[in-house]
Amino acid sequence: MRLPTLINKYINNKRGHDSQITDSITPPPMKKFSRESSPNERTSRSRSASPTKYRRRHPYQVPKHVTISKDTKSLQLNTTHTVAFYEGLSTPVESPVTTPERINIVTTPLTSPRPDFYDKELNFRTSLVKNFADLKLQQPFQTHPIFRIPEILDNIIKHLSLHEKEAINLNENPFKRRAPETYQHALLLYKDEVKAKKVWDEVLKTKRNSNFVYEPSLYNCLSVNKIWYRVALPYLQKELMFRDANKLKRFGELSKGIYGKKKKFTSPNSFTLYKLHQVAPGDQIMEDISTLPLQNVKTLQFYICPNILPPRSWFHVAQNLQKVILPGNRKINDRFLIEASLNLTNLKYLDLRACENVSDVGIVSIALRCKKLEFINLGRHSRGELITDVSLVALGKYTNIVTLGMAGCNITDNGLWDFAQRNGDNVKRLSLNNCKLLTNFSIPYLVGFNYFPNLAVLEIKNLVNIDDVKWLVKFMLWKKYSNHPLLIESCHRITKLLGIEEKKIKKTNAICALSDMSEWINEDESL
Amino acid sequence: MVASEEHEKHQQIPFVRNQVDIQVGLVGDAQVGKTSLMVKYVQNIFDEEYTQTLGVNFLKRKVNLRSTDIVFSLMDLGGQREFINMLPLAAVGSAAIIFLFDLTRPETLESVKEWYRQAYGLNNQAIPILVGTKYDLFIDLDEEYQRQVSKTALDYSEVMDAPLVFCSTAKSINIQKIFKIALAKIFSLTLTISEIKDTGDPILLYKRFGSKLSKNKSSPSSSTKLKTPRA
């Protein structure tokens, strides 16, 4: 969190300073129009160069032409011609102080002859300006030079964009162990009071701050200055992300103009909606953006947006779509999946957690057409009866699934055996939490007979019908011995059973070893 | 059908073998035969040529039993005085420390006192074993000398509470037995090899020694500490 807050702080400072400048009306400096301020004085002027001088200028005082100095004196001093060009207020708003790309504009005075009285007045004013030149009402805000080097800035912004992405996938971190259910459970898992306490405290803490406030910082980077804008924009448009329904609507209204004419905007790599749960079921929020150019999109993520469906037209365009993540979507049904599966030939990753209207029909159509599918998660808390062995068998038969999430589905031993026989070799992660129909005759024996040789993570929380864990422990020990350790995530009851069984097996092994050793030492060898 | 074919392919997962890692340190004066004992035990080779050990030599021997693999890691420390500061390598973490002396040179038995003092200071949990080497040369010597040395060695082993073994690397006498005794003492196993007590024979005394230490330890420790027998 440090990076975004730091940048935000910086941004706030910056913007505060900016607004102050706009409010104050600085009188145009007269210096430039005096005859005396010929090229001799240019050095002093460039030293005190302040953008306000150039920015707040009255239109008629700005020469809107290019003048080549004809003054002989200036020609002697300068071998090169000094070119002054001003376009007055028609130019876009000048950038603030920090912009390093600002062209250092050097002005030459008007050289046309003027009446004397005019000169006198000018002299007077020039001296005034000179006297007060060093006085400044406020210090110009200077950024750290690091923020002016595009390469470094690009690196910073890249990490910021990664950080934003991560924040959304925070609870999806695959390398993190599942949180224990109780303190007792933590104690069983970590076998060390200090560590268990620490882990459990962390769990309680995250429970309390579950709805963390997210600061959209990448967007704010656009309004810092030109260089920041230029660096941040590609990252922002590569990963389109919305957390606010109104902003999505506004984007929809503007999108046609943006993507049609200006070539600046290219097809994004990913499109994400994050927790737009307030959107009403009848809201046609996606209509305006149904024609986005999504040919490069690889990831489509609608995270807990219960009432928003991706427009059908998208799937015709997005041929490169590999990841579809739609957890917690109430609108997705079999009809939608059948239609989508027709175009999603490259799909690898499909997350349909808690999409409770999806049933076997939809999953079978996905399995039949998406041959490259590697990840599928159908975990749910209610309506588990809609996903049965039919889905499991279809996935086993037509795809090479590596990660399978079947939590809370009504799969049985038969389905799991069939799946294991067809596709067990590929499976690395398997989640069977809350599959109440599974018994001792499936998963323990399946691992015991090595049907899942590449299994690395197995989740078996709350399998009420499982109480024989002997083979699970044997498999776990064997995997550990062959340097491919297996992680079993389980509930308190099963963890306890596993612990008891492991102790038992180790004890028998120890007795075996001791008897073997005493036999060996008493062997008669004539060496 | 498919299912039955698949069944043949899938075997029950194999039995996980136990592995017992035992580190043994070898210390003693220069040229008593530490390296040659180690090489003899691990590779069954004896070389007459003398090679000075610089620092510490390390060899592993794996013994495959029915359900268990025993891995002996032998740490052999150079006998010269300048290597004394490397003694922790051989002593710390060792389950047994073998103190060697040359049966033909009584002064090497004398220095066992110092070696033992130093090693015990670093690791008082290890099983000490007193080993006299070059027994094949020893038997050719004067009978009275043999009696004298055997008696002194026995006194030493009594003070150290260490099993006493006379061995010959060249003639392969009592080599395997040293390590079997070590294993038996580490895990408090019953050893039934007959002892050899008479002067002039390759002495093998172990029953009286080295069990005080294991008695001091809590009794179930041997089974639970199986994976890591080092204290």
UniProtKB/TrEMBL annotation, chain A:
Alphabetized SUPFAM superfamilies for the sequence: RNI-like
Single GO cellular component term: cellular bud
Instruction: State which residue ranges cross the membrane.
Output: none
Tell me the ranges covered by the F-box/LRR-repeat protein 15-like leucin rich repeat domain, including all copies. 318-425
Ranges where the record places region Disordered: 14-59
Q: Name one GO biological process term.
A: SCF-dependent proteasomal ubiquitin-dependent protein catabolic process
One Pfam family, short name: DUF7885
An example of a GO molecular function for this protein is: small GTPase binding
Biased composition, class Basic and acidic residues, residue ranges: 33-44
Q: Where is the signal peptide?
A: none
The cross-references to InterPro entries, in alphabetical order and at most eight, read: FBXL15_LRR, Leu-rich_rpt_Cys-con_subtyp, LRR_dom_sf
Xref: SMART domains: LRR_CC
Instruction: Name the chain's protein.
Output: F-box/LRR-repeat protein 15-like leucin rich repeat domain-containing protein
Automatic annotation (TrEMBL), chain B:
Tell me which PROSITE patterns the record gives: RAB (PS51419)
Q: Domain of life of the organism in this record?
A: Eukaryota
Q: Which gene encodes it?
A: KAFR0I00390
Disulfide bond as a keyword?
A: no
- What GO molecular function annotations does the UniProt record carry, in alphabetical order? GTP binding; GTPase activity
- Keywords, alphabetical: Nucleotide-binding
Task: Please give the name of this protein.
Answer: Protein TEM1
Recorded GO CC terms: spindle pole body
**InterPro entries in the cross-refs:** P-loop_NTPase (IPR027417), Small_GTP-bd (IPR005225), Small_GTPase (IPR001806), Small_GTPase_Tem1/Spg1 (IPR017231)
Would you indicate the residue range of the signal peptide? none
Q: Which SUPFAM superfamilies match?
A: P-loop containing nucleoside triphosphate hydrolases (SSF52540)
What organism is recorded for this protein?
A: Kazachstania africana (strain ATCC 22294 / BCRC 22015 / CBS 2517 / CECT 1963 / NBRC 1671 / NRRL Y-8276) (Yeast)
